[in-house]
Amino acid sequence: MALRINCSIQNTLSLLNPPLSSLRYRASPLKLKPQFRFGQNLPRGALFCTYATADITPSNAEPFVLTTPLYYVNAPPHMGSAYTTIAADAIARFQRLLGKKVIFITGTDEHGEKIATAAMAQGSSPPDHCNLISQSYKTLWKDLDISYDKFIRTTDSKHEAIVKEFYSRVLDNGDIYRADYNGLYCVNCEEYKDEKELLDNSCCPVHLKPCVSRKEDNYFFALSKYQKALEETLNKNPNFVQPSFRLNEVQGWIKSGLRDFSISRAAVDWGIPVPDDKSQTIYVWFDALLGYISALSDDQEQPDLLKTVSSGWPASLHLIGKDILRFHAVYWPAMLMSAGLSLPKMVFGHGFLTKDGMKMGKSLGNTLEPNDLVNKFGADAVRYFFLKEVEFGSDGDYSEERFISIVNAHLANTVGNLLNRTLGLLKKNCQSILVVDSSTAAEGNAFKDNVENLVDKARIHYENLSLSSACEAVLEIGNVGNSYMDQRAPWSLFKQGDTAAEAAAKDLVIILETMRIIAIALFPVTPSLSWRIYAQLGYSRDQFDAATWRDTKWGGLKGGQVMAEPKPIFGRIENQTEVEDKGKGVVAVGKTVKSKGKLKQAQEVAGA
To answer: What was the pLDDT predicted at 25?
Structure first.
């Protein structure tokens, strides 16, 4: 996404890109070759009614590759992993609207000590356990409307081949050596910890559990060799790590001095064997991080690292939680330098989620299960709430009361009710037929300019990865649409007849054109809701799928188009108070009732 923070990230973000034929890292000053711009000035295309499908970007343009972490399969997916993936999906959908070729990568990290332990605790084998949990991720992603292109599992044979070839390149570069290591080890992080970063009683600051003393004969990666190179990278590419305050963290880690880290384990059987030494398995991060590259390979009989890299690497954007920032912003770039491969263009570390202001944990009994949320409220509601209410990059909080309040106010009322009452008036007074083109209806009307300005704001926010602000801009389009309806009161104008009725008919076209634009602009966040809006406007699924961001330009609806039968596109959710009031005989109009955990939409009354 194009970022226009300060001097514009799209103009400053660049990439270390040594020739792939170079196997050895050179310590000479780094030359940065600007290669990538998230956003570009895109030409305005044909009106929506033409459904032009020409690419906005050249067909030979490099792909936009974005990744989620490869999620660890020691347990089923939680809301934190769902949040990252929802955000990644919104970014992927927006980039596709711009006409980009997108490769959206997600998957599962399936090796390591914790996996074997978790499988044993369930009375299962590691392969069976991994199959079960990996499938649970795929099922959840389907339920959340996640449009990933590649799902990589680190147990895939093609992944193992890529890892081994990468390992050999780093070894040939002189950056892997064998040594004894004695230190404090966090089993949950699967990482040796420096004593100065631990809490009291040698507790890990992330998992709040005591680290254990371990002494092992392992292979090590010479991370310290790349300290200066990493410092230069961050100085020349200040947008390599985002948000900016995460960059400060990374620079602090590097400045404090980098230590070589272990990349193998002697006592762990469940993993990829070290080439030429089957007594050791490759450490989970030196394994898992390569999934971002192995995912790009086709199901070849003989996977090849350089061929795979040519299929889309480097990644345009790594989306991760802040707890794994060190691995992605320090370890990973150094590993790639050693192997002579290009660095990812950006690492974005988002914050944590809390519930009712408290950190979530099984011991507190306040975990937030994404499957429960989707089953109870639907994918659109879940996606919208977390992207709208959590400033992307910062920590965010969930409470069911606020969830229901936000979703009802924004999706059911501001968006849903505006469309429903407008279509109701059109059916009653115009037989559901548009009387004039939307461009003609808005001639000389400042309302059109207001909407287009808000669309431009939404686009900039999407490009900046400011997903909450993008939602806010689109919501404001709905707000101005509702204000326009209330000010114009077309129901009254229709009663006056003649020119007043003609003006009222034009007003309805203006509002419906606004709804069409909202559907496109909100599509990255609420894809199913956007489709329901399009269907109400009389469009087919093929027409909906052909829409691009250029179709947010005013003028898509044409005179003579027939709208669909009006019906609610998003029913309101009842909170517990409303349920209790209803039990006491208090009736709420236009509510949604829950039935077996699902939302059952009630009929709403269109404006008369």
So the answer is: 33
